[in-house]
């Protein structure tokens, strides 16, 4: 397999989570001026790599066992990889093609056939990767955010904040910015109707998918987020298409009561663990108890019976009144 990192420009930075930032080669090929602010980002693993440009929004990825896509071929050529080497990579990859890859391709095709897709969107013009030991990095650590996620900051904004890219089928389709000060609004978001955050992280081997309200709730436990206290019909289709057992973990406040009603309407399981009055959502619980303990309590409190869910909802409502 081609070592793509050997083709990267000499000027680069690497984050503790493995993301390498460098001047993106794609911008001049996509109608933009040349990148001089290290807006290209690549993360390589033993099984492949993923690339994001936070200037022209070009994305590409490669996974061993799949054919090299058109966008990946273009990116490799821009890095200076010869057509002959790209074709050898494609042949070697197909020799390693696994049943897992075939199943995943079929699931992705099924999603597209059912008409669920989102258009590509640009990130804020000043989006750059989070620097280690910065205020933003410390904030993410305080929220127990995973290191593997490509968090950004907006270098052109006067208000410091975390930029969270929204992806679907490994394409950037939106973003949200969480400001670090206490002023309103706390969030600024570019999201498309029906979008569900973090579905790209769901693995084919998983049997469960946990549905939360907030982005950091989802990131804390490897779940997905609907980003409000309702689940639209399109979001329900996106989540069902994951092919997993679904459990909704609502915020433990008044908005969470509405999400419980919607989950029951959809026939999904609900989990309302007893984390104490100081934990209003999943992320609060992860900060207090740790990720593993929270996952265990979520599965222990998981209910599929409508009667039991209604009872647990009434207990939560009564607690909120006190």
Structural commentary:
It is a single chain. The protein is of the alpha+beta class and 322 residues long. It folds into two domains: 4-113, no CATH class; 196-322, Dna Topoisomerase Vi A Subunit, Chain: A, domain 2, CATH 3.40.1360.10. It is 34% helix and 20% strand. The chain has helices at residues 70-79, 83-95, 99-113, 135-142, 215-221, 233-240, 254-266, 282-289, 291-300, 306-321, and strands at 12-14, 20-22, 40-45, 48-53, 59-63, 127-129, 152-154, 161-168, 171-179, 187-190, 208-212, 224-225, 245-248, 269-271, 302-303. The strands form three sheets. It has a five-stranded antiparallel β-sheet with strand order 1-2-3-4-5. A five-stranded antiparallel β-sheet has the order 6-7-8-9-10, with no helix packed on it. Strands 12-11-13-14-15 form a five-stranded mixed β-sheet, sandwiched between helices. A hairpin with a 6-residue loop joins strand 7 (152-154) and strand 8 (161-168). The longest helix is centred in the C-terminal third of the chain and has 16 residues, at 306-321. The protein is globular. The model has no long low-confidence stretch (mean pLDDT 89).
């Amino acid at each position: 397999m081609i070592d793509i990192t050997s083709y990267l420009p000499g000027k680069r930075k690497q984050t503790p989570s493995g993301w390498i930032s460098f001047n993106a080669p794609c911008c001049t090929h996509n109608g933009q001026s040349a990148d001089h602010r290290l807006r290209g980002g690549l993360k390589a693993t033993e099984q492949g790599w993923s690339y994001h440009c936070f200037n022209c929004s070009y994305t590409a990825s490669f996974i061993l066992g799949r054919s090299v896509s058109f966008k990946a071929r273009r990116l490799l050529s821009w890095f200076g990889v010869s057509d002959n080497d790209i074709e050898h990579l494609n042949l070697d990859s197909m020799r390693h093609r696994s049943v897992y890859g075939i199943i995943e391709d079929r699931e992705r095709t099924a999603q597209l056939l059912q008409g669920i897709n989102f258009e590509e969107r640009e990130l804020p013009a000043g989006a750059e990767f989070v620097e280690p030991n910065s205020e933003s990095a410390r904030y993410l650590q305080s929220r127990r955010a995973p290191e593997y996620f490509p968090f950004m900051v907006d270098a052109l904004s006067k208000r410091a904040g975390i930029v969270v890219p929204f992806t679907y089928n490994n394409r950037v389709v939106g973003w949200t910015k969480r400001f670090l000060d206490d002023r309103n609004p706390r969030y600024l978001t570019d999201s498309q109707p029906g979008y569900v955050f973090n579905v790209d992280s769901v693995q084919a081997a998983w049997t469960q998918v946990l549905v939360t309200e907030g982005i950091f709730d989802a990131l804390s436990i490897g779940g997905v987020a609907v980003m409000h206290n309702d689940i639209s019909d399109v979001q329900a289709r996106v989540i069902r298409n994951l092919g997993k057992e679904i459990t909704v973990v609502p915020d433990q406040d008044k908005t969470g009561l509405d999400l419980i009603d919607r989950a029951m309407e959809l026939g999904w399981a609900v989990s309302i663990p007893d984390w104490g009055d100081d934990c209003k959502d999943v992320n609060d619980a992860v900060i207090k108890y740790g990720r593993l303990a929270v996952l265990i309590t979520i599965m222990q409190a998981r209910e599929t019976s409508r009667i039991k869910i209604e009872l647990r909802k009434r207990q939560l409502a009564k607690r909120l009144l006190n």
